[in-house]
Amino acid sequence: MFGKHLKIVEQIAIVFVFAVVIPMSISAFIINNVNQQAMRYQLRESAVLIANMVSDEIDFFNKIVKSNLEQIAFSLKNYQTDQAKKAYLKSVVEKLPDCENLEIINALQIEEIEKTKRAKKKAVVPLKISENQYLVATYKLDAVRDELFKSLKDDKRQIYVLTNDGDLIAEHNYTDKAFKKTISLLPQKLEKNDAVIFGDVKNQPLVYVSKDEPKITIVVNTTEKVTKKAITNNSWKILLSCLFATFTIIFVIGLYTYYLYINIRQLFKGIIAISKGNYERQIRLLTTAFTPHEIIFLAFEFNRMATEIHKSYIQLKKNNIELKQLNEFRSNLIDTVSHELRTPLTSIQGYTSRLMRQDIVIDEETKQKSLRVIKDQSERLKRLIEDLLTIPDIEGMRLRTNIEQVWIPEILEEARVLIKNKEQKEIIFNITEDFPLVQADKDRLLQVFVNLLENGAKYASEGSKIVVDTAISNNKAKIFFKNDCDVIPPSKLKKLFEKFIRLDDNTTRTTRGTGLGLFIVKGLIEAMNGEIKLHSDKNCGFCAEITLRLA
After folding, report:
1. Which residue has the higher pLDDT, 488 or 395?
2. Which of 118, 210, 304, 413 has its CA 20 to 30 A from that of 515?
3. What is the CA radius of gyration of the chain?
4. Dihedral of CA 162/164/166/169: which sign?
5. Across the chain, what does the average pLDDT equal?
6. Stretch 366-380: mean pLDDT, rounded?
7. How far apart (Å, rounded) are the C-alpha atoms in residues 129 and 135?
8. 145, 171 Cβ separation under 8 angstroms
9. What is the percentage of the chain residues whose pLDDT exceeds 90?
10. What one-character-per-residue DSSP string does 292-343 give?
11. Cα angle value 352/355/358 (rounded, 5°)
């Protein structure tokens, strides 16, 4: 199913081809064709313009020369002899620019003179001054060419000026091969006095202007070099511009796609990590100008979601642990209560049944003994129930205390009386009568001391002593409950403040107890703003250190 879908990069590539490459290629083709049409039209128009310019230059040159000849002819009327006329013409030649010779010739000689002069690369301009005479001016063709093409010296087109007989009298950018090819394309019949486009190469227009006065033909050839500069080079510029634009778009889109793909991959990795249970995974984006706001927003919301899921996951684990502990507590409570309640209830039930029997006579001493057992077991049940009722208050930090000034020696003596010390182990109180008063709840502190002394009596080695030492440190009272026993490992020592934890487990139990004593002691001491620590080493088998504030 997933294999049928394209990746983002592949989709962007396809969209790029259809949205950029193909439109850019079509646009380049259209622009190039439009440019070629425009440049082709411009080449034709410029060729016609140049032909007309050369024609105008020839007309202008011809008019000036004719005007000069008319003035000279008018002046010749003032000279009677041929010698005088020659002298005058010679003086005029010296003054006219580019004019080589002025002479008067017979009308029959005019055509021969024109051919002769043309063969010598000379231009002849005749002016009829009488029925049989012409005033003829001879000019250098180089001078005429320079004058005609002065404004076109930078133009790369080829320009030819021909006589009606096909003789070349002036040229610009002349090459023999191009000249012959161009002349071969000239129509047999030429239209007069208008610029005409001819030839069969559309990008290299040829133009001619055939004139009656003077009788010449001007031909303009648009060479391949001109076409290349005007059309081909522009076409390449257009194509290169389109390619540059395309590559620029590719670069920008590629850069954008690169950053987008990296960031989307980060999102994918984050989602995969979440799906695999890694709720601590955070998305770190590569933020640049190319990073969309939506991606940043999505990453931010994803990280916030992941954080909330992680918190919920941690809370769930914590709740599971607490639930497990609660389940263990329930099991321990059932085991402990069933074990600790069964014995006193059995004793109470047994002695009560004995006292209620009518078939036997019970002496007074037996009655008193039975009643004492019932009383002791009832007190034991009472203490067990009080311990169980104290647990919720300690855990909920709802334990109420009445803080007052308490004298420690008095509380210790009361505790000595209340504890069960069946083995009659010696209890030593190392405390002076003038020991300072402390801030504590008297009843709660008595409960603490009873618990600690009973623990010492239960677990102290046989024949050992229970010692209570006191000290003053940093304006606080310290009470140490010590008893001799095997060294308790640190890992076991840390757990003694937990509920239902005993030094002897269910399988090795040798003493009575619920395992709630030290848990309750710790809760009571902390409720009185005190502190309790446990120690165990070779010098002191077990030591409970209590710290209370002085009054």
Report:
1. 488
2. 413
3. 65
4. negative
5. 80
6. 81
7. 6
8. yes
9. 6
10. -HHHHHHHHHHHHHHHHHHHHHHHHHHHHHHHHHHHHHHHHHHHHHHHHHHH
11. 130
Q: Is residue 447 a contact partner of residue 523, using CB atoms and an 8 Å limit? A: no
How far apart (Å, rounded) are the C-alpha atoms in residues 527 and 525?
A: 5
User: What is the C-alpha to C-alpha distance for residues 350 and 474, in angstroms, rounded to an integer?
Assistant: 54
How many CA atoms, within 13 angstroms, populate the side-chain half-sphere of residue 367?
A: 8
Structure tokens at 130: 């009488």
476: phi then psi, degrees, rounded to nearest 5: -135, 150
3-state secondary structure at position 427? strand
Assess whether the previous peptide bond of 214 is cis (omega < 30° from 0). Answer: yes
Length of the chain in terms of residues written: 551
Question: How many other β-carbons are positioned within 10 Å of the β-carbon of residue 436?
Answer: 15
Q: Is residue 522 helix, strand or coil?
A: helix
The Cβ of residue 505 has, within 10 Å, a number of other Cβ atoms equal to: 9
Place of tokens 């879908």: 5
**Structure confidence at residue 437 (pLDDT):** 93
Give the C-alpha separation, 516 to 74, whole Å. Answer: 153
Which of 79-93, 425-439, 461-475 comes out lowest in average pLDDT? 79-93
193: left (phi > 0), else alpha (psi -120 to 50), else beta? left
Determine how many CB atoms are found less than 10 A away from the CB of residue 183: 15
d(CA 129, CA 73): 7
Stated as kind and residue range, the H or E segment containing 181 is helix 176-184
What number of helices (H) and strands (E) belong to the chain? 14, 15
Residue 255, SS3 per DSSP: helix
Residue 439's SS3 state is strand
Distance between CA atoms of residues 364 and 242, nearest Å: 124
Tell me whether strands 168-172 and 158-163 are parallel, antiparallel or unpaired: antiparallel
Structure tokens, 103? 């002479």
Domains of the chain: 2-227 (no CATH), 304-398 (1.10.287.130), 399-549 (3.30.565.10)
pTM recorded for the entire structure: 0.47
Two tokens at 298?
A: 């999505």
